[in-house]
Amino acid sequence: MNHAIDRIGEVTETWTSVAQLMADTRWVLTMRLLGLSGAWSMPEGESQTMIGEKIPAFTEAALSGTFAMMSGGSLDRVFRESLEPISSKARANRERLFGRGPLVFGRTVAWN
Q1: Which of 9, 24, 72, 98 could be joined to 90 by an S-S link, Cβ 3.0–4.6 Å?
Q2: How far apart are CA 58 and CA 17, in angstroms?
Q3: CB contact at 8 A, 53 and 91
Q4: Record's superkingdom (predicted)?
Q5: pLDDT digit of tens for each residue in the chain (112 aa)?
Q6: CA–CA distance from 41 to each of 13, 22, 29, 102 (Å)?
Q7: Contact (Cβ atoms closer than 8 angstroms) between residue 100 and residue 40
Q8: What DSSP string runs through the chain?
Q9: pTM score of the predicted model
Q10: Beta-bridge mates of residue 104
Q11: Measured in whole angstroms, how far is the alpha carbon of residue 101 from the centre of its chain?
């Protein structure tokens, strides 16, 4: 019985991580599109940053998942380990961009 409960907890944790990644990704995409259109305050060089961050994050995700699999981890653990580098990058981007705030008539609006 405890095994079934533990298994339910693992699956729930995995899909909660997926849902959080989806939400963070949507926010980052929205703020970057608004930034490229001039409606959101963006840091200098953000267009280069958003391209350059992909390969390291996905490489780290592949390695993390591979190491988890090689150590005998469950499928859920392998999936979570693979998601973590991408999720942490998306979360950091969301927090960083959200703190900058929108632009109104070319000026950043106090967001906090």
Answers
A1: 24
A2: 16
A3: no
A4: Bacteria
A5: 678 788 788 889 899 999 999 999 999 999 999 999 999 999 999 989 989 999 999 999 999 999 999 999 888 889 999 999 999 999 999 999 999 999 888 788 766 6
A6: 34, 22, 14, 6
A7: yes
A8: -HHHHHHHHHHHHHHHHHHHHHHHHHHHHHHHHHHHTTSB---TTHHHHHHHTHHHHHHHHHHHHHHHHHTT--HHHHHHHHHHHHHHHHHHHHHHHHTT-BEETTEEPP--
A9: 0.84
A10: 107
A11: 19
Residues in the chain: 112
Token digits for 88? 């942490």
List of residues 6+ apart from 101 with CB closer than 8 A = 40, 41, 108, 109, 110, 111
Is 101 within 8 Å of 108 (Cβ atoms)? Answer: yes
Tokens of residue 99, six digits: 């703190």
